[in-house]
Amino acid sequence: MSTQRLTDRKRAAIVQAAVAEFRAHGFEATSMDRVAASAEVSKRTLYNHFSSKDELFAEILMQLWDRSTTTLDLAYRPDRPLQQQLAALLLRKVAMLSGEDFIDLARVAIAATIHTPERAQDMLARLAQKENALLTWIQAAQQDGRLRPGDAALVVQQLESLVKGAAFWPQVAMGQPRLGTRAQKQLAAAAAELVLSRHAT
After folding, report:
1. Are 64 and 96 in contact (CB under 8 A)?
2. Does pTM surpass 0.90?
3. 3-state DSSP call for residue 164?
4. What are the residue ranges spanned by the domains of the chain?
5. What is the pLDDT of residues 78-137, one digit of tens each?
6. C-alpha distance from residue 185 to each of 13, 60, 87, 156, 197 (Å)
7. What CATH class has 1-51?
């Protein structure tokens, strides 16, 4: 086994162990010592991969996001129907938000950031970097004349509110069931249709 492959396996084991620890014990109660023990690696190995618990937690959120985007072409296509493209983009987001790991870890993140606003700002900034695809798509559709000119960020905010209002906040804050595959598709299609009814030319 190559050194690089062993390193990658150890990093994956650390992330997997951290997910389990954060879900079971919360952010504050989870220590780097606990994660190292669960992953069966030394503390030195753990800190070689992640310099802090905040960095480790942020990496988990990034991996959850990346897992939901790897198979989709996110670029705007002038030759495809707007509804089809936007619904596909939103479905990607809904699927990520509806994941069991993501919802559980979102609860952990919210609890951890209530008393530490700077931690919340850092995590949100990291996630925002991953959410640029939707903004880029809106701007491209505006430049192509298929969406009305205006504040693209506001359009994204409207879409986010529709999606998270049904597929995230009720589950995180009130314990409602996660959306199934059919409900996810219906939500993505409905949100796309509603926003396009206002902004499409």
Report:
1. yes
2. no
3. helix
4. 1-51, 61-199
5. 999 999 999 999 998 898 888 877 787 777 777 777 766 676 666 666 666 655 778 899
6. 33, 25, 8, 18, 18
7. mainly alpha
